[in-house]
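Journal club prep, shared notes

We agreed each person brings one worked example of a sequence with its structure written out as tokens. Mine is CSN8/PSMD8/EIF3K domain-containing protein. I'm keeping it raw so we can talk through how to read the token line rather than staring at a rendered picture. Sequence first:
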Amino acid sequence: MKFCAASNSGDDLDKQFASLSLQTCTLLNLPPPPPSDAIPIPTNTTRTFDPTKGELSTIIYALRKLREAITATGRKDQFAQRAYIFNVHAAILCKDWESYSPALSSLLNVIHPRTPLSSTELHEYVGYTILDQACRQGDIAGAHETRIRYKYTDRRVELVLKALVSDNWVVFWKMKRAVDGYQRRIVEFAEQGMRVHALKCLGRGYMGAERGFVERCADRKWVDLVQDGVGWELTDADKVIIKTPKAK
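Then the structure, token by token:
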């Protein structure tokens, strides 16, 4: 609660959650503490600690334990609903699908039948479920099944599904920018696959292209593409050489 109160606004709080890298600062990956009688070993290695990330890791870990406790006690009341909602939001912003996926499932299938969500909330969490099925799990058929079962309508989410089916990276990048922050974090699970497909299409269809065009197709800066391993060459004229003509 102290961490939440320290944020100036809801947007600031969202940014703090989104800044968390679970690969580097999750509590589950921390080494166990040494025994109390252990002799400390001096080290010359300088270790840095970001208190904000430490607090975020603590929040995610605590929410996971809270969810386990609610499941064990079988609570389906208003408290359980609010706890799961906060859990879903925090875990989505951290891209911790191992936390938000079971929380979403329990919220919709276990808690909602006993403590109904409002129509707006139901629409929100069904949308997250659809995007998770399509973008992270790659289950387009399951996403459409969920959409039909809940009679879900949202033009942006539906366009994301269509873009994934047709490999339309232009629409996909547009919708990634159009959806809200929570939805965007889920959509990001599919962006690498879409980016690779776009680059493969450029590789098959172009000998060369302007750097800006390549960056728009991949939705990524040239420097980042080079770090990702793209082997194309950038000339001084800001043109990308994709393929060189074969010598006759």
